[in-house]
Amino acid sequence: MSLRPSADSSNDADEILSLLRVGLTDILENLAKCQGTVKYVTLYTGVYNFCTALRSSVTGSGYYTAADTTSSVHGVVYGRRLYTFLNEFIVQFMEQIAERSADYTGDDLLAFYNSEWVKFGDSTRCIHHIFDYLNRHWILREQEEGNNVSVVSTLMFHLWRDNFFMQIRNTLLESVFNLMTRVRDGQVVDLGMVKSVADSFVSLGGDEVGSSSKKMDVYNNYFLVPFIKATVQYYS
Length: 236
Hints:
Helix content is 73%, strand content 0%. By secondary structure, it is an all-alpha fold.
């Protein structure tokens, strides 16, 4: 896609969002097939174009450069639209994973959760860099103004937490505690699955502001406290 905008900004915007929708789906479903330089640059350029090169229907017919967008209505409108698009896209993806997880219980659920978590973490890091321009401009400005907006990687982990983890947390923890009971009964099990789940809980807490005090909230509230309670019950 060229960096030069065409005359119709609405068509340009729809084209870029369509490009991003396909590219993000590919990354989330199979990152290994999406690590070529051409694909990465194409998606990065799409984000850059959306934030800088589209013609703003709000302010007339002039084109805006990257420098103009730091304070223009164009930058605010298109930055918010792109952020909203990404939010809604990831929510839909999380809902699909939550639906698929219903097919699993016990150790199979733990294996599914850990597999999807690893894939999602790798994909999140890639997508965060693709949206680097949005992170460094619109998101940074929103944060400086005190608005509740997160950088892309934090946003995606929060969406995993709110739209997947919170939906299956009870079943997930039940699977963890059942596995730990088997350990205490002397059975041989894969403790690595428990560690991976617990580690994911740490990553799901906190944000850019006040992260030092909130980082462990998800781990403490949804893993540590129930785990201690279940341990006490086992040995009572």
